[in-house]
Write a structure and sequence with these properties.
The complex is a heterodimer. Helix content of chain A is 0%, strand content 57%. Chain A contains no helices and eleven strands. Chain A starts with a strand and ends with a strand. In chain B, 0% of the residues lie in helices and 49% in strands. In chain B, a hairpin with a 2-residue loop joins strand 5 and strand 6. Classes of the chains: A mainly beta, B mainly beta.
């Protein structure tokens, strides 16, 4: 059974810092890995999706990497801003459908 | 575009009552699914569907029933609500055609409390 772990569970940083969120998974036979953002009381917003054949994806200040062999992904946020405060969820997909296994999330607070 | 629409957004039930959470998408996605999110935890898959008339169980299906009569709609039924079903429920959909990346689109969630 696939298990996904996110470390740390919570993180508080001053504005402007570069930071790394970690995600690990136990079964390397994945179809893709997705990073989501969730604001309190809201749904999930897709940030980045990495296909199993890819090593990384970038969007603005966000960069996500994937190392399937070691079962790890990192989400790098450059020059953090208070608006980045949210919970970040990592999820791995076994196939092209909807069967995602989620990690428990990292709750990020960026202080002004 | 409406995307994925869930109703109701909030619901309070008494133990033993039944209800249906509605989910509709207007993106012509074949794949739809339901997840639940409990405090401090990630989302867990309840049921999923790969197309009209086809459904299957996910990780935590007990106490829930689904059907898929149309591409657009994927309702989740609670047969006899229990306090353990207090949670936030998310519906998601994704494209299934050529070049499918597996990207999921989520609704805003339905917050259910069972007393």
């Amino acid at each position: 059974k696939q298990e996904v772990t996110q470390i740390p569970a919570a993180l508080s940083v001053p504005e402007g810092e570069n930071l790394v969120l970690n995600c690990s998974f136990t079964d390397s036979a994945i179809y893709n890995l997705q990073w989501f953002r969730q604001d309190p009381g809201k749904g999930l917003t897709s940030l980045l999706l990495i296909q199993s054949s890819q090593r990384e994806q970038t969007s603005g200040r966000l960069n996500a990497s994937l190392d399937k062999s070691s079962g790890r992904s990192t989400l790098y946020i450059a020059a953090s801003q208070p608006g980045d405060s949210a919970t970040y969820l990592c999820a791995v997909g076994l196939w092209a459908g909807n069967m995602l296994t989620f990690g428990g999330g990292t709750r990020l607070m960026v202080k002004p | 575009n409406a995307g994925v629409t869930q109703t109701p957004k909030f619901q309070v039930l008494k133990t033993g009552q039944s209800m249906t959470l509605q989910c509709a998408q207007d993106m012509n996605h074949e794949y739809m699914s339901w997840y639940r999110q409990d405090p401090g935890m990630g989302l867990r898959l309840i049921h999923y569907s790969v197309g009209a008339g086809i459904t299957d169980q996910g990780e935590v299906p007990n106490g829930y029933n689904v059907s898929r009569s149309t591409t657009e709609d994927f309702p989740l039924r609670l047969l006899s609500a229990a306090p353990s079903q207090t949670s936030v429920y998310f519906c998601a959909s994704s494209y299934s055609g050529r070049g499918n990346t597996g990207e999921l689109f989520f609704g805003e969630g339905s917050r259910l409390t069972v007393l």
